Amino acid sequence: MSKTISEVIACLVIIYLAAGQSCQFSTVTLYKTTQLPNKFSNMHTAATHLPSASHNVKTGTLHSPGIRVDSFLPVIFSRKVAFSVRKATEPLQADTRIHFRDVLANVGGSWNPESSEFVAPYDGKYFFIFHAIGGRTSDFTMALMKNGKFEVTAYGTLTAFKHGSNSAVLELKREDKVSLKLQQGAIYEHSGNETYTTFTGFLVF
Known about the structure:
With 205 residues, this protein is mainly beta. It contains two helices and 13 strands; from the N terminus they run H-E-H-E-E-E-E-E-E-E-E-E-E-E-E. The protein has helices at 3-18, 43-48, and strands at residues 28-30, 67-69, 82-88, 96-97, 100-107, 111-112, 117-119, 124-133, 140-146, 149-156, 163-172, 177-185, 198-203. The longest helix is centred in the first third of the chain and has 16 residues, at 3-18. It starts with a helix and ends with a strand. 26% of the residues are buried.
């Protein structure tokens, strides 16, 4: 790696740490063939002495002549998060969290199929959409839940097999949990491979 490229990346790391951005990191080592210039010689000191009380920042250990981020690198390089699940499983009556049989996509691994909930890997704005249909003789109310509290609801009327859906953009903090809850009534799911209940979400920015 050329000296110029290494110095540019080093500057980006320090700028993001100093700006107090919310970051996610991965393990990366950048090796240089020449000694860092004097302006970068104290990067370790600069990074580890940033104020932490009001910043959601994680820092690794920076070394010279190389830049080693032992555990972390800012998420400016990759923030891909998306999931889509389908086909609700029993129980299909209130009051219960909706569990899903099939995972269509789980980019970033933030959908937990065992607990049937999405766990935010980063601070950010996330888009969610969900859909279900009511039972033959029941209406239903389904809620999009954030950390155990409903954000928006969908309603399917009492007439047989009526659809209900809704969507929202939620502002989430890292480790916030999002799921679906059947608050009232009952939903219908096909006994074979047809699918009527879906839940999808992804990171917007």
